[in-house]
């Protein structure tokens, strides 16, 4: 997809922020005005920050590193899963597993466990188990796949995190910072843009808004 235009951003409702009483003062530079008790985001600032983020993501992807997309909120999870899977990037759309980055070795062991179970199903191991045992193991496999299947190809720490709603995904942001992993995020008016390296001021509650950004940025991956 080509770079998002001002009209596309407007049509997607990217400019709608949160209620003024819920704002984070650090978002002041990105707010255009207040209307009916809601902050309106300056789309000129959004476009500028989107361009910066796209350029940086393109360089990270060009180096061969993976970009991990994080979006567990209802409005964004299906969009992110569908769009990001198409370009072969890892994503987390279920609950963020604590220690996902800071305890990455343990997460990798859990991912490898899925492969071991798959092997058991084909090498005859299951034939020597009771139905109850097989069922228990397959339930474990389903749970692992639900939580970690989307990162099964992530064999090393990602080169960057792209986050929808940095306020909700604060644990992911903190873990990335501890490891020096660059963070990118869609930042609404209730969040602090200073907690991520590349903040894109925008509505993070609208599915249309999220879809527009993911479509625009995935061409950089």
Structural descriptors:
221 residues; alpha/beta; Rossmann fold; Helix Hairpins; 2 domains; five-stranded parallel beta sheet; three-stranded antiparallel beta sheet; 7 helices
**How widely separated are the two ends?**
12 Å
Principal-axes geometry comes out as elongated
Query: So what's the CATH class of the largest domain?
Result: Alpha Beta
Number of strands: 8
CATH architecture of the largest domain: 3-Layer(aba) Sandwich
Q: How much helical structure, as a percent, in the residues? A: 40-55%
Main beta-sheet strand count, sense and barrel state: 5 strands, parallel
Structure annotation, total helices: 7
Regions with pLDDT < 50 over 5+ consecutive residues? none
Order of helices and strands: HEEEHEHEHHEHEEH
Can you tell me the CATH topology of the largest domain? Rossmann fold
Average pLDDT level:
92
């Amino acid at each position: 997809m080509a770079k998002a235009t001002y009209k596309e951003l407007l049509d997607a409702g990217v400019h709608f922020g949160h209620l003024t009483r819920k704002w984070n003062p650090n978002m002041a530079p990105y707010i255009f005005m207040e209307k009916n008790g809601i902050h309106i985001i300056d789309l000129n600032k959004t476009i500028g920050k989107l361009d910066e983020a796209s350029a940086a993501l393109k360089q990270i992807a060009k180096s061969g590193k993976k970009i991990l997309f994080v979006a567990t909120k209802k409005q964004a999870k299906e969009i992110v899963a569908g769009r990001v899977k198409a370009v072969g990037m890892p994503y987390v759309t279920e609950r963020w597993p604590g220690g996902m980055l800071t305890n990455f070795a343990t997460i990798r062991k859990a991912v490898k466990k899925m492969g071991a179970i798959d092997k058991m199903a084909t090498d005859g191991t299951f034939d020597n188990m009771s139905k109850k045992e097989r069922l228990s193991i397959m339930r474990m496999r389903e749970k692992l796949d639900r939580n970690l299947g989307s990162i099964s190809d992530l064999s090393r720490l990602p080169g960057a995190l792209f986050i929808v709603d940095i306020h909700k995904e604060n644990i992911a942001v903190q873990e990335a910072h501890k490891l020096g992993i660059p963070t990118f995020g869609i930042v609404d008016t209730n969040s602090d843009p200073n907690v991520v390296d590349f903040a894109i001021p925008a509505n993070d509650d609208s599915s249309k808004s999220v879809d527009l950004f993911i479509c625009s940025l995935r061409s950089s991956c």
